[in-house]
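Hi R.,

Here's the input for the N-oxalylglycine complex you asked about:
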Amino acid sequence: MSIAIRPIHPVFAGEVSGIDLTRELSPEQVQALEAGMDRYAVLLYRDQPLTDEQQMAFSRHFGPLENARGGNIPIKTEDRRLSEGMNDVSNLGKDGRPLARDSRQRLFNIGNMLWHSDSSFRAIPAKYSLLSARIVNPVGGNTEFADMRAAYDALDGGLKAEIEDLVCEHSLMYSRGALGFPDFTDEEKALFKPVRQRLVRTHPITGRKSLYLSSHAGTIIGMPTPEARMLLRDLNEHATQERFVHVHRWRLHDLIMWDNRQTMHRVRRFDESQPRDVRRTTVAGDAMTVAQAA
Ligand code: OGA
Ligand code: MN
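And here is the predicted structure with N-oxalylglycine in place:
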């Protein structure tokens, strides 16, 4: 078997064939997939039934995993459904049933319906995320991706110059606050301390520039907040036009992998009375976008 990648959108995103993700990969295979990610930024693999262990092992080919707990909403160990290393983005509780409507965990996860880049609220933000479909919801629940390189390229020169060196502050407090998420605890407020991120990033391998936007971005350093939020809104509106967006309609055992440095994503509303079990692993980034305390 040799790896092949077929484009599934005019500007980015590809579907990979010729690979079994449950197997240990050769260095050549890893290289082919990394090159595919640099080019397509989103890669889809169909028909890949995976255990959590297999998903983590596949993900580690691309770097160490991010600590799934640190920095995010604190969920008591005894309430967690999945093991260390797995991000549970399902709508399920430990009993395997959909979370109650007023569950804090559920309300927090609704934040994934805002366009974002994973872990942009961490000083060293994520490299890749990998999402595996274990139960597909019957209604809605598509995941959408936006190509932030193509969005950057399409800006006019004046705006590019204006934003080139801008630095934003990102925090879960901004994204969850935007949805009216109630009552952060003192522990959460301490965990969600804002971090700084460049607004324009350059990919370390390809050298392509991209807009680094995320629902977690809430201020721009040196700019009055309303002006900053308006600029961020405008840029988000620009970057998520249909021509830059790929819509993923889930099938059971899909695995989709994206580069958080070059894309944003969001999940659409679905039938919350029915299970939707998707599980994420996150490959840690290796650098800050601006100098700051870790
Ligand atoms: C995520 C996420 C989207 C989805 O796992 O980071 O945003 O489709 N999930 O559940
Ligand atoms: Mn996400």
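One thing worth noting: The mean pLDDT is 95.

Cheers,
M.
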